[in-house]
């Protein structure tokens, strides 16, 4: 049995936090990472945010259309050994992103566990659509998705920005939360829709102002805990960091693809230098523009690496490849003390 862990946070922009975010991602072992308000541009690459353990799916805001410079954007990063299918046709005109995550059951007599995972960010206005229009469009899409997949599991997480709704523990044993104080048309619409789709809300963690803006909706039991004490980026007062656990899953992930490890310490550098010296670099570069020069240089260097430096295939690990055993031990010690602090806070 194992828990599947989903980390969620409204980041309030990642453009200026890429180094800190990447460093903290490398020190984590979450199965899935979900971020709202990424504020990302095309010029920010996935590899600046995540190491090779994750496949990244993004829906960046179109700033050329909105005439704004920041705000919005969502992403989901999933471990490479999970089978993931992006469901672009499920995306609505709101800022949402849908994936189908298939987990293979260790019991061969059972089907794989399909989870439709969605992240949503609702704001006052986007692309000429009001908050009400975004909410209505998303709920229409959600209704169609759930009805079309009646036997599937769903987890919808995101910033719904409906702060007046109060969420109190339900009387059921699933540790979900019941809404109250929902009186506006948007609030009533949301509550009516999630009830009609048999979804429950599992986040009861309040922000700095005693409100709950980030909701976790699901038709399966999930456990949501506050992770604001050790977030991937600094916490915003309106939003905490959450970890969503799907408990007791008997799954087997896909076999990770082997990694090609180049053995630079065993390379024939005399042969490499000899071949490099035969290239007339001045003549080659004078007939090319800058991008062509860079491509020519790397093509030759990579060809020589393949020719004169041996390699071996190794399996992927839970941590980035450059993490040493002492560093992994320190990370595990940090997690142990953090768990102890949460159980016995001073």
From TrEMBL:
<dbReference type="GO" id="GO:0007508">
    <property type="term" value="P:larval heart development"/>
</dbReference>
<protein>
    <recommendedName>
        <fullName>Endonuclease/exonuclease/phosphatase domain-containing protein</fullName>
    </recommendedName>
</protein>
<dbReference type="Pfam" id="PF14529">
    <property type="entry name" value="Exo_endo_phos_2"/>
</dbReference>
<feature type="domain" description="Endonuclease/exonuclease/phosphatase">
    <location>
        <begin position="117"/>
        <end position="219"/>
    </location>
</feature>
<dbReference type="GO" id="GO:0031012">
    <property type="term" value="C:extracellular matrix"/>
</dbReference>
<dbReference type="InterPro" id="IPR005135">
    <property type="entry name" value="Endo/exonuclease/phosphatase"/>
</dbReference>
<dbReference type="InterPro" id="IPR036691">
    <property type="entry name" value="Endo/exonu/phosph_ase_sf"/>
</dbReference>
<dbReference type="GO" id="GO:0061343">
    <property type="term" value="P:cell adhesion involved in heart morphogenesis"/>
</dbReference>
<dbReference type="GO" id="GO:0003824">
    <property type="term" value="F:catalytic activity"/>
</dbReference>
